Amino acid sequence: MTASLSRKPAEHVERALCVLAHPDDVDFGSAGTVATWTAAGTEVTYCIVTDGDAGGFDDTPRHEMGPLRRAEQEAAAAAVGVKEVRFLGYPDGRLELTLDLRRDIARVIREVRPQRVLTSSPERFYERIGASHPDHMTVGESTLRAVYPDARNPFAFPELLADEGLEAWTVDEVWLTASPRADHVVDVTDVVELKFAALKSHVSQVGHLDDLEGFVTGWMRETARRLGLPEGRLGEAFHVVHTA
Fold this sequence. Notes:
globular, alpha/beta, 8-stranded mixed sheet, Rossmann fold
């Protein structure tokens, strides 16, 4: 079940691409939504820009953290029906808005050819500052620039076409997570256990939390209430941008 306060997104798409900065970003904000997409037959691909090597809460050696978090993200993806996870290998905590990053995201868009892209909001969320990690905002802005104009313009990054044979591709809509402009909510009540399974795959990040499910449930319940779902339901919120 979905509810929206503005123009509605497509009911179903064949392919969706989720572009996020770190392993676990997609799971905290969107794993329930992704589970509803895969259950409906949408082929979902994850593109994770960093390996999350600056994360963690224990004494795991830094050189082990990146590979560990890749494996955790792959397990989390499987929990919600996602079969393909791509990693771009950029350094965690040091992302900048560069032409290289735009090109690399545009490349994945042209390869996957999604009708829908999910990414983080490029706007700072002052009421919930933890959502506005600099890497999140950088990936959100880079992805929006890759969607428009880079991926759809055959003359942008011409090497993608000339050297790699990747034809231009137009994405129809972008879903922004952790946005102060959220206007669309997805009811994830019936798939919440899949979301929790995905989140619990990130042991290096959440293993120290005593009540992960309680914290996330409270967050989703408030989201559902704020965006108009019936009492007792759980929601994930997005700002949907129509780009075609």
